[in-house]
């Protein structure tokens, strides 16, 4: 999950997001060529080199499979990929009906419509237009109020006061809650859980990522990480995409890093991708190379002590 580190004295809960960005290693491969005798041979080699350079610069060479492409429509049932559960969950209190006993990753395009995704994207655009990071990654957390501003974060409810009511409406919050409930339901059905034992947890937030160079470590969203390790409360993680890979942005695909090879999910507006949060689902996000990628990260815990309420205007 691609997240942003936070240092904010104003937003009480916003410091939770600071842990989310983790350093890792970005692996790229280059291409080389050898010269040949003769002018014609050199020209042919030059053409091949140009094509190879373009290809290697356009895609991550360590991706070995596409789980779901942008052009596919996964409906009406989720496409589920089961993986063995890690031992991460043994280090935490177990909650019957919720603690993962069947682990994996899944994708569906039938939970949120493209029209609803457009409404949520416009909400994200309005909120993030109030400020935004100096680098390529910005967040808006409606629960804590955290909003990227330059190289730090502010609380939108405190910083903008009543003006925020011109940006976020009660109808926006209602759609946000409805979508959260639907996501929670499909996760529970897919992993055979008791939905009443699942709780929304923090951080849950909008993200906007573009190709602007990182200015601080907060902007380095692309490093590999494990959600359960970063946040002990996490048990299930979901990404709701609000823009389309290939037309709204390039790069920015979600990559599961497996021992047998990496696998990717290509974002599509309205697409819901969710997975158990342990080390069985180590992942990262490709660097966005063009355009703007919008998404919502929605997180769930089995521990009621770490549950949070749906957002509302103060």
Automatic annotation (TrEMBL):
- Cofactor(s) in the UniProt record: L-ascorbate
InterPro entries from the UniProt entry? OGFOD3, Oxoglu/Fe-dep_dioxygenase_dom, Pro_4_hyd_alph, Pro_4_hyd_alph_FE2OG_OXY
The membrane spanning regions, by residue number, are 38-56
Write the signal peptide boundaries. none
Is Metal-binding among this UniProt entry's keywords?
yes
**Which Gene3D superfamilies did the record assign?**
q2cbj1_9rhob like domain (2.60.120.620)
Its GO CC terms are: membrane
GO molecular function terms here?
dioxygenase activity; iron ion binding; L-ascorbic acid binding; oxidoreductase activity, acting on paired donors, with incorporation or reduction of molecular oxygen
Task: Please tell me the species this chain comes from.
Answer: Seriola lalandi dorsalis
Which intervals hold domain Fe2OG dioxygenase? 202-303
Keywords for this entry? Dioxygenase, Iron, Membrane, Metal-binding, Oxidoreductase, Transmembrane, Transmembrane helix
Q: What is this protein called?
A: 2-oxoglutarate and iron dependent oxygenase domain containing 3
